[in-house]
Design brief:
The complex is a heterodimer of chains A (about 110) and B (about 110). By secondary structure, chain A is an all-beta fold. Chain A has no helices and 11 strands. In chain A, strands 2, 4, 5, 9, 10 and 11 form a 6-stranded mixed beta sheet that branches. Chain B has no helices and 11 strands. The interface between A and B is medium-sized, with 28 and 24 residues.
Chain lengths: ~110, ~110
């Protein structure tokens, strides 16, 4: 089936700590895995993405890792700051080839305590 | 340059009515996709259009339909509204033909069905 599971649903960390959000997907043909950040009342915005031919990607304090064998990928945020507080969604492309579906996880509410 | 624009921003309908939501993509983007976001959940894929053709469809009933116009703007139509259709409807545009590229979301149209 077409499913993306995301954990945890809520995550509270102290400023400066690291945060990790994990997702699993069901379609072995999935080849694109983006992460979106949605602040309260705002539109989702892409923060990082990874393709199936790469195992890890970093962008400053944000990194994403992908394990194709286990069908899971994770978002890592280091040195968290209060402005990192938001809902984070993982997603996976479905169908492979001329991919035309993007399935989102249920979201993780990250709260960074100052 | 203007981002993705959606209209209307808010609307209230009653059960059984019909609704049309509109989306204008970023200039130069030929791909438009629609998502339904229920409060507390991730965006659920409804449709993806590229060059005026449907390229992907999510698990939504036939009451949901969409189209893309020659100027790449798009409409989402929902017939015979149900209470459960109450949600934020997000439109996203992208450069990529499929979904394996950054999605630029609009602010959404919040639909309330009474």
């Amino acid at each position: 089936g077409e499913n993306v599971e995301q954990h945890p649903s809520t995550l509270s960390v102290q400023e400066g700590d690291s945060a990790v959000i994990k997702c699993t997907y069901s379609d072995s043909a999935s080849n694109y895995f983006p992460w979106y950040k949605q602040e309260l009342g705002k539109r989702p915005q892409l923060i990082i993405d990874i393709r199936s031919n790469v195992g890890e990607k970093k962008d400053q304090r944000i990194a994403v890792t992908l394990n194709k064998t286990a069908k899971h990928f994770s978002l890592h945020i280091t040195e968290t700051q209060p402005e990192d507080s938001a809902v984070y969604f993982c997603a996976a492309s479905i169908g492979g080839g001329a991919t035309n579906k993007l399935i989102f996880g249920t979201g993780t509410l990250l709260a960074v305590q100052p | 340059d203007a981002g993705v624009t959606q209209s209307p921003t808010h609307l209230i309908k009653t059960r059984g009515q019909h609704v049309t939501l509109r989306c204008s993509p970023i200039s130069g983007h030929k791909s438009v996709s629609w998502y339904q976001q229920v409060l507390g959940q991730g965006p659920q894929f409804i449709f993806q259009y590229y060059e005026k053709e449907e390229r992907g469809r999510g698990n939504f009933p036939d009451r949901f339909s969409a189209r893309q116009f020659p100027n790449y703007s798009s409409e989402l139509n929902v017939n015979a509204l149900l209470l459960g259709d109450s949600a934020l409807y997000l439109c996203a545009s992208s450069l990529a033909q499929g979904v394996t590229g950054e999605l630029f979301f609009g602010e959404g149209s919040r639909l309330t069905v009474l």
